[in-house]
Every structure is written in C-alpha cells, then in structure tokens.
Amino acid sequence: MGALDQLRGSVVIIGAGTQGRRLAYMWSSRGGPVHLVDLEERQLQDGRRYVQQLRAASINHDRNWGDLTTSHPNMLKPKLQDAWLVIECVPEILALKQKVIAQLDADAPEDTIIASNSSSYGIPEILDGLKLRNSKRALNIADSTRKIIRLATRDIRIWAAIKRETLLALAEGVGTPQEIDAIFKDVLKTRQGPCELMDIVGLDVVLDIENHYADSRIGVPHEPRDYLQSMIRNGHLGIKSGRGFYNYTDAQDQKPMLYAEEHASDDDWREHSALSIPAMPISADVADWLRTTYEDIFEAVFGSWLGNYSCPFVFGEHGQLEPDSSEQRPLELSISISALCRQCDQWMNDLESQEKNVIDRVATQAEVEREKQIDRTLSQAIQTFSARWLPLTFRSSAQKAAQTQLIQGLWRGLRKDLLKAINRPCYRSMWSLYLFAMVPIPVGISEEEEDDGISALCAVQTALQQVLHLRARQRCVEFNGSKVSPFQDRASRIPSPNEIRSEFLSIESMIYWAALTFDTSSSLTFSSKSLLSSGLLGWESESSWRLVKSCTDIFHEQTEDWRVHGMVVSEENANRIIAAGAAWKLRVWKMAAVLKEALREGHKEETVHHAYTSAVDAIKQFNVTYRPLLMTCERRIQFLSQHTKLRWYELMLHYHLSILIMIDAIEIARRTDILEQLSITKSDVEGNIINCLVFGLSNQFSLPRPQGATKNNFVQVPLVAIDPYPHHVVAAVQLLWNGMERDYKSGALEQGTFEHLQSILLQTLELLPQTSKSVRSAKEKAQISSAQYRDSLDLRPGIP
C-alpha cells in the first residue's frame, strides 16, 4: 500500500461534474471515505450513479471501497473537520475558484491540504490577491502527492498541445476526427484519441480552457477556438448533447464510448467517462429548452397541486427543523413531480436495501443499465411533452412547419421506448407513461400507425397499475392517510433510517395524489373505471376525499376574515387560494365522474339522486369558499406574475369544464328533470369558460427562444397557446360550440353575439398546438360549421 493509501481521514471534493466524480471514484477506490459536494442535486445523483457504474464494472471484486457521501455546500463545514484533503473541481472560472479556495481556507482545519484540480490555472495564479488564513497549505503536500501533481502538470501541458494541434488540423481540413483518432491510437497505443477525449470532457469546457490559454499566453492561434465555437453554435457539445466530433445517437458512432466502458480499468481512472448517451438526436440548446420549458410551464401548474397549499396529505405542514436552526422550513408552493419520482425511486431502493441488510452492496451492471434506460425514457418523455411549444419560438410559417418532423420523431421514439418503461415498474416509468398520455398525437401520424402501438388511455391505465404495484411492494411504508413530514431536500444532511422512512411516506403520498389526479381526470374524460379510487359505491369512505373535505373546512375557517373584510392580493395569498381551490376542483371532478357513472350504468334512482346532490353540494362549497376569493384575485390579477395568471386560468377552466362535462352527460341520458334544476348553473359555467378563454387569449406569457434567454430573445404568446392541457381546451370549445348552435337556432342567441362567440372559439383553436391531430381536427370541424353558418345567411332573403 502506498503513502496515499495510508493517509487517515476523508477526501472532500467540491464539484460533482466530470472531473469531480472521477476523482471521487479514484479516491474511494483506495478505501478511504470521500464526500462529494455540489449545488445541484441532479449532479450529485449523477455522480453517485457514475461511481456505482465504475465499481460494478471493476475487475477487482475484492477491493475495499471507501464510503461515498454527498451534500450541498450548506453542509460543507462539518465535513471538512475530519478531511485531510479537499479538492476544488468547479468550472474553469478564476473568480469562482478563488471564492471557493477562500471559503475552504476559512472553514477547513489548519492541517487540511487544499488542492485545485484546474487544468489551466496554476495555484499561484488562483492564490494571487487572496488574503488567506494559511496560504502555504495549498502547496504543503506530501512528497508522493507533489510528485503526482508534477506529473499531472506535465501531462496537462502535453495534452494541451495535442488538443490544440488536433483542433488546428481539423480547422484546416487536414483530416477527420476518425482519421486523427485512429493515427493517435495506433502510434501512441492509447485507448482513446483526442477527439474522443474532448467529446467526453465537453467541447464547451474545452473552449473555456482554450480561451484562458489565449488570454494568458502570447501566440496561441485563434483557429482552434473558432472551430470549437462553430461546433457549439450548432449544439455539438460532445457526449452530453448527443453529438460532438462523433454522433452518439447512432449505434455505429457509439463505438468510442462503448469501448471506454468495456475496457476501463480501476487504476486508469482518468479514462473513465460519464456513461449516459442521450436517446434523441436533438441539439443541446433545444434539449435544454425543452426541459426548462416543461419545468416553467407544466410543473409550474401541476407542481402547485402537490405543494403544502393543495395536496391534502401535506396540507399546511411545515418541514422539520433544519440542523442547528430554530426555524421551520417554509411551506412549499410548488413541487416538481419529476424530482419527486426520482427521489422516491432512490429512497425505495435505499429502504429495501436496509430491510435486506445489504446497504453496501454495489449495483450490478444489469441494474446500472436498467437505471440508465429508465432515466433516458423519462428525459425523452419530458422532451416529447414540451416539443408542442417549439413552433411558437419561430417567426416564419415555414420554420414553424419544419418542427413537425422533429415532433413526430420524438413521439415515435418515446412510444417505442415506453415498452421498456412498462417492463420496468418504478415511479419514473409511471411518470413517463403519464407524460406520453398527455402528448398530442402529431399530425402526419396515420390512423394505422396510431392504432399500432400503445394508446394514451392504455398508458394511463398502465401507469396506474404501476402505482398499485409499487405501493404494494413497499408494504412497510404503505400510505395510511396519516399526516407525515413534508418533502425536504435529502442531500441537505444525512438522515437516519427513520427520517428517511418518514420523508419517503410524505413524498410517496404526494406522488399518489398526482396519480389520483390523472385517475380522476381519466375516469371523467374517458368514461373509464377508476383504479386508485372507488367509483360510485365507496368513494365517500376513502381517506383521500375525506382529507380534501377536511382541508377545505380548515381553509374556509382560516380565510373567513378575507371573505368578510377583504384581503390584500399578494402573490403568496393569490397562489395559496388557487392551490387550495385546485384540490377542491379535483373533488368536483370526482363528483362529476361518479354522477356520469350512475347515469351511464343505469343505477337506481336513489343512487343517481345521491350522486347528483353530492355534485351540487360540491359546487355550492366551491361557490361559498373559493369563488369570492378567486374573484378578488381576478380584479387584481394584472398586477400578478405570469405564472400566477396561468395557475388561475387553469383552475377556473378545469373547474367549470368538469361541470360542463357532467351536464353534457345528463343531456345524453335525457334527464330533463335534472337539467331543469341545473339551468342557472349551466348558464354560469358557459359564461365562465368563455371568460376564461378570453382571459387566456388576452394575457401573455414570456417564452424564451431555444437560442438563449437574452433581452431580445423572448417571444410573447397568449396563455392559451401554452396551456399544458390542450385536450381539455378542445373539449371545452366543442361543448360550447354545440351549446351555442342550439341556443342560436332556438333564438336564445342573437346573430352578432353568436358570431362573436364563434370568433373567440376559432381564435382559441388557432392558438393551440397546430402539430396536434386532435386540434387540427377540431379546428377543421369548427371552420366547416362556421362556413355552413355563413352559407345559410347568404340563402336568407334580405341578408346582404
């Protein structure tokens, strides 16, 4: 065992990027504990997975691996107290590195060595101008460690020359990446060539390093940097974007990456690379835009239904006390469902390992590959879901139309990969299935192709079955309706098994509420049987719906003063009202589905009457508790943010749509006796839906273009255009259109009013995603109906 292996204490690594996770693997392979720190939870998760992958692929199965722990920077100081070495691996930005080094010097013990992993800045350059408590320890390293650093410095300078000459040769057209890599590997007998290595590092990172060299040295040629910039502008960043010098979306060009995985050794840690290859051939800027747009639009709405103001399982609950703090964690307005699914899957694995006493077991290669496939499918589902909005960011009709092929390709690719998600039950797979169900079928997909694979309804039903399977599998933490600790960031500290179990219950409950939302919506819109909840017989005794009622009672009592004396409409107050109303909205959807079931299946009159009175009572409760506050918010809504406007619009549209669907079912059943009692309600609902659509047409949402969010790089679009549920908007338009035609023919609507309402509905359909088959079909039917109406006017005598 060498001198480095004999050192006691832990190694702390700041930054879980490509270099940080490699160092974490290397130091943990020596048997000592390693602590990895990063601001981003996703980076920490990827870092842990990367180390697990390399350990699983290790040829030395008897190796004593060191413990690997992770945390955010706010928990760094306690971890430094027993560290003999701390290494910064933050991006190649001098000011950032200096800030990190200064903080480490202030917090780390006197004898802790502070090192930088920079490939372009020397220690003297980083320390220049810093007033440190002990600047010498940045250089006070054991002899063997200094030797490694000297060798690394020598290697870095040689690598910089090779890299620059490679880029220069490519810029001048001397050879292709494949030819240069082949010569390099043949002559020097290396496993990877310079182009392959740069793809692994990331071409944007390589450009940052080259820019630093150019700033600090004279005579550095500009051609390599120009060549890199042209690649980056095209979205070619290397493996992380799916394309760099090689195209990693094609099986043939995956060979460099696969070779690195297949022949990686434990000791040659520098040649390992991140083992994730994107599934879809889209540029990095488009992929990033699709993800951030999904978060900015869909999760901003749906996430508010899972927060402490809406989800009945965590309603009004504060988080646990933070370590060394007397303050409670604030209430969460919005929570990412995708993050919840990832966290729940990870914790389920952790809890199952604890149950089996195999906490330190290293994942097998098959398990690692399974996790990679699940993550790829979820990422692909998010991209496919958001692709509908991509045409909004282009100005010309030709550019908008050109996105159809990409949207079709994403839909086809996701649909194919869903077969793998079906066979890999977990919460991420469940969410991938839900997202696919909400993706509009693109235009250009034939009916034969549409019928030749999984349908939206099948995807929802499969996802619900997975929820049932997962909850049954985790018997020890099965939801029982009791209040539990709300969501908190697992990476902020190292929780005990009991705390993990409690927080797991909380997260699982929020995911269950999300699944119940889809289950209820599906049972109403598809007229399908509910899988997570009882139908006509038994729903009232279920804890979920009883909790919704209890939370509404609590909210009503808490906000009574607002209804009596008025309120200040702040962002927080408005979002609290909207989120609480969204939970009751789901109960109204349930009531509508139950009444629809009673009418459809021909139940006894007393059963139908009970379902009807329950629905009417739910509507009355909304009108008493929520409507006055929502109307107050509406009067002040132009002073609120675009996300608050979007949430208000979605709540009001969905709530009134559920009642309109219920009334439509009553009309189909020809229950005129019930319809007469709902005549005022129907008039009110139709008016509210029209007002919602007008609101959605007249209020704008600022959407960044994929090229980047700069001052002149935003597009303003109506809220209707980015509605995450266009199928609900189409349903509302169709129901309103049918009702308007009946009223016009009966004389209840004047000609000018009828034409004005037609115009609103046609504008709405024009702004929904035109790459959607259902939207196109609804628009064509509406245009035909409008044309027939105009033709009928031409045939009337006396009409000019």
Report on the structure:
With 800 residues, the protein is mainly α. The chain has five domains: 3-141, NAD(P)-binding Rossmann-like Domain (Rossmann fold), CATH 3.40.50; 167-271, N-(1-d-carboxylethyl)-l-norvaline Dehydrogenase, domain 2 (Orthogonal Bundle), CATH 1.10.1040.10; 284-315 and 332-509, no CATH class; 546-716; 725-800. Helix content is 60%, strand content 4%. It is built from 31 helices and seven strands. The strands form two sheets. Strands 3-2-1-4-5 form a five-stranded parallel sheet, with helices on both faces. The chain has a two-stranded antiparallel sheet with strand order 6-7. Residues 1-6, 140-153, 250-280, 318-328 and 476-496 have low confidence and may be disordered.
Identify the overall geometry.
globular
Structural class: mainly alpha
Gyration radius, to the nearest Å? 30 Å
The figure for the number of domains is 5
Please state how the strands of the largest beta sheet are arranged side by side: 3-2-1-4-5
Mean pLDDT: 81
Low-confidence stretches: 1-6, 140-153, 250-280, 318-328, 476-496
What kind of sheet is the major sheet? 5 strands, parallel
- The strand count comes to 7
Which percent bin holds the helix content? 55-70%
DSSP summary: helix tally: 31
How big a fraction of the residues is strand? Answer: under 5%
End-to-end separation in angstroms reads: 100 Å
Pfam families: 3HCDH (PF00725), 3HCDH_N (PF02737)
Keywords: Oxidoreductase
Domain 3-hydroxyacyl-CoA dehydrogenase C-terminal: 157-248
Organism: Oidiodendron maius (strain Zn)
